[in-house]
TrEMBL record:
Keywords: Membrane, Transmembrane, Transmembrane helix. It comes from the Bacteria. Its main location: membrane. It comes from Sinorhizobium psoraleae. This is MFS transporter. Gene3D superfamilies: MFS general substrate transporter like domains. PANTHER family: MFS TRANSPORTER (PTHR23521:SF3), TRANSPORTER MFS SUPERFAMILY (PTHR23521). It is found in: Membrane. The chain crosses the membrane at residues 7-29, 41-61, 73-92, 98-118, 130-148, 160-179, 200-218, 238-257, 264-284, 290-308, 329-348, 354-373.
């Protein structure tokens, strides 16, 4: 486990800095939108640009990773994030923001894909849940820190947008200057959503619903805080409370994920999400402290559920399929992020800000309910692929084919799987 952590330390540090900038961006955008008197529907429309870019990146980014490797692609994507937020500060028009937010969605999606496929090279089935929980804690801590930068500046001018661009640029340094071994480019860059669904239906459906949940909250949560009359500082605290609840629960959920059927954890998270969202909708108008508590309960399951889908799908994957799996899951997640804001925005305009949490409760109910149904359809260990520790699979370069070539990668991956393992694409669907 320590070897796995040390091999991705620089990546984690870059992720932390990236998410500080992302947290600042995710709050300054809706606050500025409200200051410009844009409707919730308008915010949902340019949020769709973000999600379309997000989904497109799932298709395009693996091809770039195949051609030039993880590090160069990560550098390019972080640069795009910096450019996009700076352009939002320079041109404050919601029509222009559709394009700028699409660039941002493309870059953040690709960054997640690179990070998660990189992490998957360093883990086993036994520690995947815990390591991904640590990764998600890093993202939560960074996002919380970024959101608390908003009250320190004025969202109606360019200062916070410039600061956000600087932070994104700083995120390049740890990975660019790291001496840790870099992951080899994948042997192939493709995605197969129907094949992924046959392999893990619960991961695909769960990915869509996780995207709908996070997309609705990330794009409209800041609008919600403004609509119910919270100050900028109180709104930042509410958003931070939701992320704090998520960070606190990452380790317990990660440990539970490694000790029982992952789908049981999905059902439990769905139930907690439904109860928490309904309680939050009933708490509108209460003291800020009560809202913070309810937000923390929602956050305890809202963001961790994506890791459940990733872990479950990768249990059923060969080592050379991690980029393909990450790409496929990010596409399903992207589809969900398109649906989430578009469905919630008009509902909030018609029924008020509390309607946000009614819709989120429906999403959570669908998430937990589908996982419960899949438990009845497939045994827990059916289709699992055994994997060894990262250190055990590392080989020293020897004369002959380049160990980073697609041929060498395929040979190494095949060596990890016993002769009697049936290839994933030949397994019957359940």
């Amino acid at each position: 486990m320590l070897a796995s952590l040390s091999s991705v330390f620089s990546l984690m540090l870059s992720t932390l800095l990236m998410m500080v900038a992302f947290g600042l961006q995710s709050y300054v955008i809706p606050v500025r939108s409200v200051a410009e008197s844009w409707s919730t529907l308008t915010v949902s429309i340019f949020a769709t640009g973000y999600t379309l870019g997000f989904t497109l990146s799932c298709i395009v980014t693996p091809k770039f990773v195949l051609r030039v490797g993880h590090v160069r692609v990560f550098t390019a994507l972080i640069t795009l994030l910096s450019i996009a937020i700076l352009m939002c500060g320079l041109f404050v028009d919601w029509r222009a923001w559709i394009f700028f937010r699409a660039i941002s969605g493309f870059a953040i999606s690709g960054s997640y894909l690179v990070i998660e496929s990189w992490l998957n090279e360093r883990v086993t089935n036994e520690n995947r849940g815990l390591l991904f929980s640590l990764y998600l804690i890093t993202t939560m801590v960074g996002t919380i820190g970024g959101q608390y930068l908003v009250p320190l500046g004025d969202p109606t001018n360019t200062s916070l947008f410039i600061l956000c661009g600087v932070l994104f640029s700083l995120a390049l340094l740890p990975t660019a200057l790291s001496s840790s071994p870099m992951p080899a480019p994948p042997a192939q860059a493709k995605f197969d959503i129907p094949g992924l669904f046959r392999r893990s239906p619960v991961a695909v459906v769960g990915g869509i619903l996780a995207g709908a949940l996070s997309g609705a909250w990330l794009n409209l949560g800041g609008v919600f805080t403004q609509r119910i009359g919270l100050s900028t500082a109180e709104g930042a605290t509410l958003l931070a409370s939701l992320l704090a609840g998520s960070a606190i629960m990452q380790i317990p959920i990660g440990r539970a994920l490694d000790r029982m059927d992952r789908r049981i954890v999905m059902v439990a998270c769905g139930i907690v999400g439904v109860i928490s969202c309904l309680a939050m909708s009933a708490s509108i108008g209460s003291s800020p402290a009560m809202l913070y508590l309810m937000a923390a309960c929602i956050g305890s399951v809202l963001f961790p559920i994506y890791a459940l889908n990733v872990a479950h799908a990768n249990d059923l994957a060969r080592p050379n399929e991690y980029v393909e799996i990450s790409s496929g899951l990010m596409i399903t997640y992207g589809i969900g992020t398109i649906v989430g804001p578009l469905m919630v925005g008009p509902v909030m305009d018609r029924f008020g800000p509390a309607a946000l949490f009614i819709v989120l409760a429906v999403y959570f109910a669908l998430y937990g309910g589908y996982a419960a149904w899949r438990i009845l359809r497939r045994e827990q260990h059916q289709g699992l692929v055994a994997k060894t520790d990262f250190q055990a699979t590392t080989v020293m370069p020897t004369p002959g084919p380049d160990v980073t070539s697609p041929i060498a990668q395929q040979a190494d991956a095949d060596a990890l799987i016993s002769d009697d393992t049936v290839p994933l694409w030949e397994r019957p669907s359940e």
